[in-house]
UniProtKB/TrEMBL annotation:
GO terms for molecular function: hydrolase activity. This is Nucleotide pyrophosphatase. Pfam families: Phosphodiest (PF01663). It comes from the Archaea.
Length: 413
């Protein structure tokens, strides 16, 4: 079923055509604290108690995070994917908001730490750190030329600590079924290009996890195909169907390895880091072309390279020469159907969260551009980004609303 009370979230958080994060209660950022609380640990704020009402004596939590599969995608695929309907009947689907930016790099650092983007400082897929004089992609921790930043360590990407040591101290064993291992957990890796390898990796995790345990499974395939094809495409639907077939198989495997009593104490969750919105590659604005021509307005690295890469096409951070901030603001607000936030406004409104860290403040752009429904980027350097169909990172309701679906394992049998 859908949680009727939480459906009011959309109306409460709406700001015109945009939807703001609900950091104080119904937010993705509170999932790690909720999981920990159910398992008897404290790693930070949790969702309101009603989100997990009725789930008593939980000894194992299993979270399937399907990248980019927001609430709009859940609704859009429900009729085509029986698993989604069956999960609704077995448990509940509670809408949450993502964080801002609604991007994997920012959201997943939040998911593994409980820290908001305003704390950990990952402002998007691309990050510019003026103290280090570096631009880099946050998740692969690489410059655009494929080399690692020389003046930053991988641990400097996010200014936060993982929740997993605290879980371990509380006796909770954490297993990760992901395409890449993560520190502080028991890893079970698989090939993201071959979803059939997910099943064996999950089976290994299910078989080896000892209660109390937390099993986290990450599936990025729907997000990847949506960028190129859009959410209203045959390729996307095929990938979504295959992804949830694997999730369904994983739950069946879990049921086989769990006795009847423990099945009632195993909570299964399905969620997403953000949703997706289809843009129009024919109309996605190019900041390196007229009427913008912004490259000459940008600050530069010490070697003279313009700071193009900060944020993403749905969450553009502009680091501008001081005298160009006001003229560029005027230009963008005239030419774009977008919210253009000044740095001061971002901080005052707590758009990325309250209590900004020094790391976040120095990485935050002078202006942050969030288009209503298009992608905005630099075609001179990354024309492929303007060719993406589905994107995320902004404040469109389809990006910001995500499902938090929960059911006990015995109800899913």
């Amino acid at each position: 079923m859908f949680d009727a009370d939480a459906q009011a979230l959309r109306e409460r958080q709406s700001d015109g055509d945009y939807l703001l994060p609900a950091y104080d209660d119904w937010c993705f950022s509170r999932i790690p604290g909720t999981v920990a609380d159910l398992l008897g640990a404290d790693v930070g704020p949790r969702l309101p108690a009603s989100a997990t009402e009725g789930y008593d004596d939980v000894s194992q939590v299993v979270v399937f995070l399907v990248d980019g599969f927001g609430l709009a995608q859940w609704d859009g695929e429900r009729d085509r994917i029986p698993f989604l309907r069956e999960f609704e009947r077995a448990g509940r689907v509670t809408p949450l908001t993502s964080v801002s930016p609604s991007e994997t790099a920012a959201a997943m650092n939040t998911f593994h730490s409980g820290a908001l983007p305003s704390e950990h400082g990952v402002v998007g897929w691309n990050v510019y750190d003026p103290d280090a004089d570096e631009m880099f992609e946050a998740l692969p921790f690489l410059r655009k030329d494929g080399t690692e930043p020389e003046r930053l360590d991988r641990g400097d990407v996010a200014d936060c600590e993982s929740v997993y040591p605290d879980l371990a101290d509380a006796g909770v064993e954490a297993h990760h079924v992901t395409p890449f291992p993560s520190e502080g957990t028991v890893p079970h890796t698989y090939d993201p290009e071959d979803l059939s390898t997910f099943s064996d990796a999950f089976a290994e995790a299910a078989d080896s996890a000892a209660d109390p345990s937390y099993v986290f499974a990450y599936l990025p395939q729907t997000d990847a195909v949506a960028h190129g094809e859009g959410v209203d495409s045959a390729a996307y639907r095929e990938t979504a169907a295959e992804t949830f077939a694997r999730v369904e198989d994983a739950i069946a495997t879990l049921a086989e390895t769990t006795d009847d009593e423990d099945a009632g104490e195993t909570l299964v969750c399905v969620t997403a880091d953000h949703g997706l919105v289809d843009t129009d590659p024919e109309r996605n604005p190019d900041l390196s072309e007229p009427p913008f021509d912004l490259v000459s307005d940008l600050r530069t690295l010490t070697d003279g390279t313009p700071v193009r890469f900060s944020g993403s096409p749905r969450n553009v951070h502009l680091h501008l020469r001081d005298e160009r901030i006001d003229p560029v603001y005027d230009l963008l607000t005239t030419e774009l159907d977008a919210r253009v936030f000044r740095k001061r406004e971002v901080l005052e409104r707590g758009l990325f969260g309250p209590e900004p860290s020094p790391t976040f403040e120095r990485r935050l752009g002078d202006l942050v551009v969030v288009h209503r429904d298009l992608g905005v980027w630099y075609g001179d350097e990354e024309p492929g980004n303007l060719g993406f169909v589905a994107m995320h990172g902004g404040l469109h309701p389809d990006e910001m609303l995500i499902p938090f679906a929960t059911a006990t394992l015995d109800s899913l049998r």
